[in-house]
């Protein structure tokens, strides 16, 4: 994944033998809902969903004349898990003030230091593709749009995809996916 780039263009061929290009738009900090405010403490970690960054959001394909041929738009969902168990707590301390009980220039003067703290916990997550919309631009200026929805189970495995099959009749094609944990030996296994 192209870290740090939100838009990349890949040219096919050479300047003399141009075969077209593909333009990629990737998810950025704004897609990751990054909190870019300055932390209260210096060097404190910022909560940033890095698993959302660098995913292909839009892919556009152009021919050798620069005419748009196809666009794919992807939609993602992401999960966030904050482990607030005290075993995983990190604490950042920052000195707020020092109060002297006497002359601060005298090294033997008693003093009290005051600190503030900020607790933070590790965050993890994952991103998964939930929808793709493919738009195909044909040479006769017609447009074909194909939308595909993707559903996942709690293990983040794909369990169902839905896409148009025959748009003139309003039919959709639904594909279901099953995994070994969907079956048990007590049920007699898989039967035809």
How much of the polypeptide forms β-strand, as a percent range?
over 45%
- Coarse shape: elongated
Structural class: mainly beta
Per DSSP, the total helix count is 0
Largest sheet: 8 strands, antiparallel
What is the terminal-to-terminal distance? 43 Å
What value does the average pLDDT take?
A: 85
> What is the tally of beta strands?
10
Strand order of the largest sheet: 1-2-3-4-7-8-9-10
- Encode the helix/strand succession as letters: EEEEEEEEEE
Rg is 27 Å
Into which percent range does the helicity of residues fall?
Answer: under 10%
Query: Uncertain regions: pLDDT < 50 for 5+ in a row?
Result: none
Could you explain the architecture of this structure?
- The structure is a single chain.
- The protein is mostly beta strands.
- The chain contains no helices and 10 strands.
- An 8-stranded antiparallel β-sheet has the order 1-2-3-4-7-8-9-10, with no helix packed on it. Strands 5-6 form a two-stranded antiparallel sheet.
- Strand 3 (56-62) and strand 4 form a beta hairpin.
- The two termini are 43 Å apart.
Quick overview:
This protein is an all-beta fold and 192 residues long. It has no helices and 10 strands.
Task: List the keywords.
192 residues, mainly beta, 8-stranded antiparallel beta sheet, two-stranded antiparallel ribbon, 10 strands
């Amino acid at each position: 994944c192209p870290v740090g780039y939100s838009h990349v263009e890949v040219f096919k061929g050479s300047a003399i033998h141009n075969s077209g290009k593909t333009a990629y738009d990737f998810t950025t900090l704004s897609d990751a809902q990054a909190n870019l405010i300055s932390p209260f403490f210096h060097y404190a970690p910022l909560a940033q969903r890095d698993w959302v960054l660098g995913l292909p959001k839009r892919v556009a394909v152009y021919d050798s004349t620069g005419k748009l041929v196809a666009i794919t738009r992807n939609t993602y969902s992401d999960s966030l898990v904050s482990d607030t168990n005290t075993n995983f707590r990190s604490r950042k301390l920052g000195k707020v003030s020092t109060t002297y009980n006497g002359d601060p220039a005298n090294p033997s003067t008693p003093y009290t230091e005051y600190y503030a703290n900020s607790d933070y916990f590790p965050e993890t997550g994952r991103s998964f593709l939930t929808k793709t919309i493919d738009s195909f631009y044909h040479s006769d200026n017609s447009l074909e749009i194909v939308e595909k929805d993707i559903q996942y189970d709690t293990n983040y495995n794909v369990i169902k995809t839905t896409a148009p099959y025959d748009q003139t009749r309003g039919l959709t094609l639904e594909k279901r996916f099953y995994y070994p944990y969907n079956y048990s030996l007590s049920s007699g296994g898989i039967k035809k």
